[in-house]
Write a structure and sequence with these properties.
single chain; 600 residues; alpha/beta; ABC transporter transmembrane region fold; Rossmann fold; six-stranded mixed β-sheet; 22 helices; 63% helix
Amino acid sequence: MGKNKNTKSKISIFKLVFFVLKEFWKQNPWFYFFLIVVIFLVAMLPSLEQFAIGRVIDRFVEMAVSGLGWTSTAWWSLLSLVGVFILTAFVYRLETFMHQMDSSLSNLYLDKIAAFPIFLESEPQNMEDPDFVYKFSKVQHNVWRLNRIFFDVLEIVAKGVATVVVAVLLISFSPLLVVFLLAAVIPGAIVSYVYGKRVWSIWDLSGAKKILYTSYRWSLYHEDLDSFQEMKVNDYGPYLMERANHYHYLFINELIRNEKKRLYSELFAGIFENVAMGAVLYLVLSLFLGGAITVGTFYFIYGLLLSFRVYSQGLLRRVVAVQADKNYLETFYELRHQKRKIVPGHIQLDNKQPLSIEFKNVSFKYPKTNKWVFQGLSFKVSADDDVAIVGQNGAGKTTLIKLLLRIYDPNKGKILVNGHDLKKLDLDAYYKLLGLLFQSFSKPSVKVEENIYLGNIHRKFNLEEIKDAARKAEADGFIEKYPHQYETFLNKEMKGGILPSGGQWQRLAIARVFFKKPKLMILDEPTSAIDALAEEQIFNNLYEYGKDTTMLFISHRFATVRKAKRIIVIENGRIVEQGEHDELMVNDGLYAKMYQAQQS
């Protein structure tokens, strides 16, 4: 993410707020322009109504004093007031409509502003960084705050202008009115600032408690029957509920303590405020008794006083709320401006040829650790070869794949692909040549046909090719039995949807690899949830249809490993053996011991 604490602290609240404004504004500029106009009109309408009512009062007082009947001026005043009422009703309904639209659109825009860009622009190694994961969780668990901040700023702009207009009108009658009004508002503003800031500090400092609450709460809910049944048999549901309530209480208790202190302070500020408002009313009544204003104008000024009081207090509360969100905004801004740790190159490989791989004196240790996973690791995988990587847990097998995918770069040495340094390759183009299947593979809740098509979205959607990939993965049999076959949703929440078994999910993942037609297959325990007969056929298909593909796979199931042209045995980050199955069995080394242990 590339920002130290000193750099982070220099980001002004104005820059942060402007960034949020810009992100929302570009989603739908015309909608938000009309929204801010409507907010301004709503703010000014009470004053317009009061002015119109004041005019009617003055006209009818004149009629009563003079003893004359209805005059044209009185009629026009009354009709104008009715027109203002109609305008008010229309604008208020328009405001309701705009807010309903904003409520509907906000979740869509929040995904486009926060969730999707942060996640999609992140590098894979971030998912292993606890600091990044915490910050990402903090942003996502409180993402609603971005919409609230944006709306607060719109309110500040619209009602800020309205407040200035009201203040100018009051000054035209007496500048002292605004002076006393400010004196009435300032104590409440200080209380709002101090305790409002504490509220959001609690939200920020207690973010971990909120995440813990959410973690325990959602651990109660299980989509699949096996997990739900395990919870029922072990009876740990009440425990999870108790822990969730515990962390939620710790968070809520801090808010309650703050609100109690705020109550006492607001009571004191309220006394001062009402005394000042009494002084303001004395000034207005003096103007009336002195004949400087009419009774209708008195009514109008009184309405302006109330509007100024409400608007100024509301503005200050919103300013405080936005300022108190600075810590959250900094985290959001930081995640949206991540600096790449892995800088891609520009070389693009031939997409018609299988890939060769060479690890050349590679040494690597994970960030923030001192333990070397590899030191001086060297081996080659020729184009159109198939190689199995085996070893005990913690030997470095998965780390080897992470380096090959350039999730991390080696600390020393080079990784060559078709003779080119991996660091110099265009990563997007390189990834298009790879077929990848991890043990913890993706399980998209989409249609079956889409699930397989996700293996290569850069190809034209072709159902026959999708079905062919399913056949090679031995997945066509159960797909044909689904209610809607290839159009079945893999989600029980959808009508007619299906939740596949572990083995079925794995075959669908393998089908994605077949559909991609990669030049390098990287498979990490690709058949761990599949029965032996299906596994045998799948690997036969992999070898048969992958003749123009380099294969590199990790597996603990030696029935499949033994078929590889070459087996590389890793222990403590070093290659201790390599060769064919029969050769390694004769050597009677680590491979032979692991193989015999599995057969016994």
